[in-house]
Amino acid sequence: MQHELIIILDFGSQYTQLIARRVREQGVYCEIHPFHLAADVIAERRPKGVILSGGPSSVTDEDAPRVAADFYEKLNAPILGICYGMQMVAIDMGGHTEPAARREYGHAKVKVLSGKTKLFNELPFELDVWMSHGDHVTQIPAGFHKTATTGDVVTAIENEERGIYCVQFHPEVAHLSLIHI
Questions:
Q1: What angle do CA 163, 166, 168 make, to 5 degrees?
Q2: How many angstroms separate the CA atoms of 181 and 173, rounded?
Q3: Residue 141: which domain range?
Q4: pLDDT per residue over 94-151, tens digit each?
Q5: Rounded CA gap, 180 and 40, in Å?
Q6: pTM for the full model?
Q7: Which of 103, 130, 162, 168 has its CB surrounded by the most CB atoms within 10 Å?
Q8: Which positions are catalytic?
Q9: Beta pairing, strands 5-10 & 49-52
Q10: Residue 69 phi, psi (nearest 5)
């Protein structure tokens, strides 16, 4: 039997198992793998999508965990970057991420902006989310557009042409019916 597959690359998030649970609750088969899984191995599996989990590291550290250098070029599936995953995508795609003045942990209210988005069902609206991060995206990469904020902090970006979607918050902790995964 052939399953549709979602691959979750784990960067050490305390929520990785919850991400997998939420995906499985949607009736989709998924597997968790370490972040350094080779891009060729991922591509051979032909996943319907790849999720880049959050993680405790700062993406700005010299030895921060990263996907393989050829990851974005070899992968032919949509990517969802969550928290650390969003920050890493921003840097990898030519944007900029910096340490925040203070860590953000807990409830936040995200404003989903009007405009074109594949991540959110309704436009515009506010969403209660769970944050857990010390870095934030300060410059969006070329080709991406901002789809949500918490005021000054960019909380969602998308590049539909490349199939890359990112959120700073943890949708696996919030109610998933508001997000298309």
A1: 180
A2: 14
A3: 5-178
A4: 999 988 777 677 788 889 987 778 888 777 788 888 787 778 899 999 999 999 998 8
A5: 27
A6: 0.89
A7: 168
A8: 83, 170, 172
A9: parallel
A10: -55, -30
Which pair of tokens denotes residue 7?
């691959």
Query: Residues in the chain, how many?
Result: 181
Question: Whole-angstrom Cα distance, residue 153 to residue 109?
Answer: 11
DSSP labels for the chain?
-PPPEEEEEESS-TTHHHHHHHHHHTT-EEEEEETT--HHHHHHH--SEEEE---SS-TTSTT-----TTHHHH--S-EEEETHHHHHHHHHTT-EEEEEEEEEEEEEEEEEPSS--SSBSSSSEEEEEEEEEEEEEEEPPTT-EEEEESSSSEEEEEETTTTEEEESS-TTTS-GGGB--
Model pLDDT for residues 19-47, shown as the tens digit of each residue: 999 999 999 999 999 999 999 999 999 99
Tokens standing for residue 61: 């550290």
Total domains in the chain come to 1
Q: CATH number, domain at 148? A: 3.40.50.880
In this structure, are strands 79-82 and 49-52 parallel, antiparallel, or unpaired?
A: parallel
